[in-house]
Design brief:
This protein has helices at about 15-25, 40-50, 65-80, 135-145, 160-170, 180-185, 190-200, 200-210, 225-230, 285-290, 315-325, 335-345, 360-365, 390-400; strands spanning about 25-30, 60-65, 90, 95-100, 100-105, 120-125, 150-155, 175-180, 235, 245-250, 260-265, 270-280, 300, 325-330, 350-355, 370, 375-380. With about 425 residues, the chain is of the alpha/beta class. It folds into two domains: about 15-210, Rossmann fold (3-Layer(aba) Sandwich); about 225-400, Nucleotidyltransferase, domain 5 (2-Layer Sandwich). Helix 12 crosses helix 14 (about 390-400). It is globular and about 75 Å long.
Amino acid sequence: MAKQITTGYKPRAPQKEIHEMVKGNRFSVVVAHRRMGKTVCAINQLIHSALNCDKPNPRFAYVAPTYNQAKRIAWDYLLEYTRPLEAKANIAELRVDFMGRRINLYGADNPDSLRGIYLDGCVLDEIGNINPTLFTEIVRPALADRLGYCVAMGTPKGQNHFKDLRDRGSRSEGWELLEFKSSETGIVDKNELLAAKAEMGDDKYAQEFECSFNAPVEGAYYSSIINDIEEQNHIIDIPKDELARTYTGWDLGMSDSTSIWVAQVVNKEIRLIDFVENHGVGLDYYVNWLREHDYMYATHILPHDVAVRELGTGKSRKEMLEEAGLNITVATKLSVMDGIAAARQILPRCWFDKDKTKQGLDALRNYRRVFDEKRNVFHDRPFHDWASHASDAFRYLAVGMDESPMEAWTKPLEINTSWIV
């Protein structure tokens, strides 16, 4: 008779539903109200899956928006529920090993820590605060050869990529969706909910406890404006206008990501027709991307520090890009808040290509102020995360575009690209 192991976990009814859903589906989405116990559920799902995995050297992962969040929110739960399994804990790597199995905690702020691994199962917690490319570019390939599963869970953060995942879970083959509102689960006392609603206000309460994606993200700089222009049907398919004045706005990263927006000015309209972001590649990658998409002729707006010379080459990135044939304009140096004000001013006149700029638009929706949890206030400075790069590039675009009238706009006939391999 097989030995029965008890970890001490006693799932609530909604948690049982999640476990049943994961049992029958590779890809699942969970929209949960605050205090439902989704992190406890996630950790125990990974433990249960690891115990029942019959593949050699099973590997499972829990991913939070940041490494510190993973350590602060989930590490104690992982230790508590694997203690009966005599697990060996490695706090330096946020890892437990037991019975030939392994569960790691990761932060989405260090995506390279997830590259090159394989996974039999993964939970992405607070997916609305995680770069959407983490799943498509890193997690999904890690699951492929082992046919592993993934659960994306969280509480709504406006109409961002989590909303897209929620919709995908409700209608796409191979995906499943569960939603848990506080008014339906009965987990939080009714009087407590009434008090919370009175203190939080209707919008915030609807987001946090009734799983509404319609409320503006608290502390976000642009989400309410983007919601407005979306209602005005400004997010559509946008063809490229060969005669329009064209600009790109860059945020250049060294060891970080580089983002580029492509915009065209047509009368009073600002049309965002393309976007690219990558990291770990050189300037030649972005020049090649511009060349392949026929954007070399644009006016390229870069941040003020582009003129700083690099020790290795003795050249600035501005000089290197100009040698490649790009017409470079350096954005006026403004404070971050002044730049954000400029971006907010042009946004109502912006139109976005719904497919090509989706990644950048998700970033703009999520760009928000730093929140001080101790004092319960927002600071007047942006929170630096995956959304920052695209948002900074948009800010430079807003500051650097010239919208003065012009007689005509034509492309240069010749562009020097001899330095590109």
